[in-house]
Amino acid sequence: MWVFIISCSPQHQQSTFANAGPVAQQQSNLYYLMFWIAALIFVLVQGALIFALLNFRRREKPIPGSDFTVPDIPPKQVHGNTRLEIIWTIIPALILIVIAVPTVQTIYSTYEPPENSDPLEVVAMGHQWWWEFRYPDEGIVTANELYVPTDRPVRITLQSQDVIHSFWVPQVAGKKDTVPGNTNVMWLQVDEPGNYSGQCAEFCGVAHARMRFRVIAEEESNFNNWMESMKTPPKMDTSEGYGLFLAHCSMCHSIDSYNEDSYEKELTMQDERWDDWYFNQEESVRVSAPNLTHLGIRTMLAAGQKDMTKENLIAWIKDPSEFKRGTRMQSVASVYKGGPAKLEDYEIEAIADYLLAQIPEGWGVAKTGVEAEEEAEALVWNTAEEHGEYLFVNQGCAGCHSLNEDEVIVGPSMYGLIDRSGDKVQGLSAEEYIYQSIVYPNEYIVEGYPANVMPQIFINLSEEELQALVSYLITIK
Ligand code: CUA
């Protein structure tokens, strides 16, 4: 029961009630209108039913002073009532008309962007099991993360290379199918900068549930900066990993789509890869695959399965099925032949380093690859809790602290932390206590655990990061 109620919460990142743009807003308005009309009808009909049940039920009257009862006499049977029948035909017809007007209006206004609005053109192409995003006017191709400017309509042309998928970003717009051999159109607009979670909403095969994506909305200047960056070569484009990438990955993944004429090239190449695989699945060693240009600035990997961290990227390259059963990467590329990558650990790490170094020249301020990677990740949190959860893993907390009740890895479990932190030190609230014990671990040793085990380095986290960690930790129960 609670599961269903929670699924309606506007706080959820894929809630259709948390409208983030005009298209979603119009669709919600229509939904609410229909919901309340339906609710009113439900109450009236059920009310009439209950009234009739209570007032006209069969009653037997006892005869006083005896065991006998007078049977209820059946009411007079009638057949047909022209006036009633006309009324209950006209009322539903009127209701349907009342609903039809806004419905048709909404269908039209959510189909094409408003006139004279200068929409951004994007092609969203569904693949088993990831999303390709093309910006035909800009000559940009990317995957799984759709950058859009805020306050400007985005006209999306929906296509598919293989089977029917459905493009859905619940907070931003309703779903619409991508159909092979057919082109659908929709538009969306995002009001506020941020990340909006999306996913394929049409069953499309083994990894359907893992075909996620993210809409990253940026204010116009930042968005333009991103577009320019996508056409700029990376700071570093050769390294040890480069050769390995060329040898094992480049048949399927383009990495240099920042060049002048690379857009047409990538489109042709993607079709060739697909044909290659489609017409000879037994022998093909390539298949259409996400464009990896400037992968270092992406926030997620494997179509939204994991955050883009070096650790995750290594694990993903090593054995993709661990994250995403069904991925073609493993069944097609020769370096896998269906199993884990036939590469040494240091080779996989070199490839990961190379990929994460794919960051456009001039992106952010001059930074090391690691710093820039961290910044790209730091941009993506919707909430402090989300940020804290990331830090919990990324800062190594998860290595020693379990989230499960009573499970001890090295330090105490974080389960139910909020409930037992409030009365630990007089004068400190639970939050303050948790904060203090992250920053000064030795001052707050939990009974039964040795001192000097937890590193005293978290004092170097920023105030924002510490607050994020606390707000995440108090949610664990
Ligand atoms: Cu693509 Cu489900």
What can you see in these coordinates?
This protein has 477 residues and is of the alpha+beta class. The protein contains 15 helices and 14 strands. It has helices at residues 2-6, 22-55, 82-109, 220-230, 240-248, 262-279, 310-318, 328-332, 345-356, 369-378, 384-394, 397-400, 417-421, 430-439, 463-473, and strands at 61-62, 69-70, 120-127, 130-135, 140-143, 145-149, 154-160, 165-169, 173-178, 184-188, 194-200, 212-218, 300-301, 306-307. A five-stranded mixed sheet has the order 5-4-3-7-10. Strands 6-12-11-8-9 form a five-stranded mixed sheet. It has a two-stranded antiparallel ribbon with strand order 1-2. The protein is globular, with a radius of gyration of 30 Å. It starts with a helix and ends with a helix. 31% of the residues are buried. Dinuclear copper ion is lined by residues 126, 129, 165, 200, 202-204, 208, 211. Residues 126, 129, 165, 200, 202-204, 208, 211 line the site of dinuclear copper ion.
Indicate the radius of gyration in whole angstroms.
Answer: 30 Å
Q: What structural class should be given to the helix and strand makeup?
A: alpha+beta
**Sheet with most strands: strand arrangement:** 5-4-3-7-10
Q: What would the principal axes of the Cα set say about the shape?
A: globular
The first-to-last residue Cα distance is 19 Å
The biggest beta sheet is recorded as:
5 strands, mixed
Ranges with pLDDT <50 over ≥5 residues?
none
Task: Give a list of the ligands.
Answer: dinuclear copper ion
State which percent range the strand residues make up.
5-15%
Instruction: Give helix and strand order, one letter per element, not per position.
Output: HHEEHEEEEEEEEEEHHHEEHHHHHHHHH
In total, how many beta strands? Answer: 14
Which whole number gives the mean pLDDT? 85
